[in-house]
Amino acid sequence: MGYPAEHLFTTINIILFYFLLPQGGFLWINTEPLVYGGGPIPSIIEATNLKKTFGRITAVDGISFAVKKGEVFGFLGPNGAGKTSTMKIIACVSPRTSGALRVFGMDPDISPAEIKQRLGVVPQETNLDPDFTCYGNLFTYSRYFDMPSDVAQKKAEELLEFVQLREKRDVTVEKLSGGMKRRLILARALVNNPDLLILDEPTIGLDPQARHLIWERLKLLQAQGNTIVLTTHYLDEAARLCDRLVIMDNGKIHVEGSPAELVKEYVGNEIVEIEKTAEVLSCLEGEHIPFEIIGDTVQIATESSREVARILFDHCSPHKVLTRPATLEDVFLKLTGRKLRE
Amino acid sequence: MYHIWSMPRITRRAWKVWHRNLVVFFRTWQVNFFPPLIEAFLYLFAIGMGIGTYVKDIDGTPYINFIAPAILAISVMNSAFFECTYGSYVRMYYQKSFDAMIATPLSIEDVIAGELLWGATRSVMYVIIMLPVLAAFGVISIPASLLAIPLAFLGGLMFAGIAMCFTAITPSIDTLNYPSFLLITPMALFSGTFFPITLLPVLFQYFALALLPLTHLVAIMRMLTLPAFSWTILLHLAWIVIVTSVFCVVAINLMRKRLIV
Ligand SMILES: Nc1ncnc2c1ncn2[C@@H]1O[C@H](COP(=O)(O)OP(=O)(O)OP(=O)(O)O)[C@@H](O)[C@H]1O
Ligand SMILES: [Mg+2]
Asked: How many domains, in total, are found in chain A?
């Protein structure tokens, strides 16, 4: 499954982050070895046939997956697919209905406190404590993890810097913008130096700058040996961050793989888009080129856009032709359909 | 599986929730410090100078001395009850504090236990602030009345447990008005507070003794502040301990049922 290549990549990443970047390791450094000598990489999360029902609604319908140490694992899927339900089960805040689950080799039903001690969670719904300032939120939260007061203080300051909220240190959270709250929540998830981060739409509502900041931070955390599980609706984000991801729909996992693999397997290399006209349609049918109609454009997925473009220009006299690389979004829409979820 | 009689597994971490509330409380201590003080004065002036001039004494006890323990007991009830209804509901529903806490090593049992302990602590604080005022006016006797402080904790825990049961089942914050008007207000009037329970019809006396928690708290409180101890204090204490345990256990289980889905 491409382990060696991944190893190499992680190793290069580590080298980059530790030696080339000035801020490399300015937070904490995980002392556990990052690369295991040849043996299989241990699974941080192992789920088999995981199921969650709410009354008659089946939110998670028998999914199985394994998240390896040090990887960024993504859950994609339309609204109501069951991503948040899955995150809550892993985070030990919602019990599974059936199936087997191990987090750090432990069962959430049996040792929730031990697991949670090593988790950092960013929930989908912001739940910062409005009775405290930014600093107060971080400090209070670290006390729940039994951290000594002096360590907690230092950590809180460090994390405010990490998410660039130092100026807002003494501001109550109600006075933060939505994006700032999101950043503070990420900082809060890090107070206990977690080994596993569970991020449910971490960048929702962030501006492009903040999103890039978070991406950079997450990459840094990964380089330090953290394992990250995240959900997102931004497919460019998933493509950029995730080593592997699954696409869920109706509580089931449809596909699993690395972003590049999935694009290649389900869509192809490139997409050619043309304006939809009767001429073009009949011409494409005549040339036996498979296509898909989306609104008023026609999309052709192909290995070679030049080939298709040439045929089009030679035979179909199109008005406008656009070629672009295929993306995860194409895979997503292909697999989950274009209909809006209620 | 869990049911409402399951024995909750509470750890020492419950104190962290308690501590969080304590920190918030002391940050706004000016707001929290004055109500008990003012309430003590209001009762003393209204009842002492008003009603007290007509009702001289009850069974040989000056009227103001008769109601002083009731003032304390009602304060114990109110502070724990309102803390664990409106206060806890706001933290649970609007602030999502419990959701944030159970993502840490704290369990829901720890969180609710912490809230209950905090409710009881509010009662203790109220009593601690009121005691010197009442003592200064000479309407309670010191040092026996100092026992009102530990009693406030026990009584507070009882009302916190009762309150938390309502919080666990209330559909919205507005419906919390029902227990306060239908239970707390009548209880404050008919539990041997402002007149002896023996003035009530016999049937109602039994009802009050069997079912109104405040009756027992007032009875013990009065024994402490007059002071006039009798062996029946043990019966009242036993009643409170049993009811407190039952409601606290049920409250935690109901909350777990509401929040852990
Ligand atoms: N507490 C709950 N009670 C009842 N049904 C629920 C509850 N939580 C989730 N559901 C249902 O479970 C299904 C999956 O919800 P979930 O929140 O896991 O979706 P999601 O993939 O996170 O969606 P989104 O992208 O909108 O966040 C939905 O049909 C939802 O209505
Ligand atoms: Mg969700």
From this structure: 2
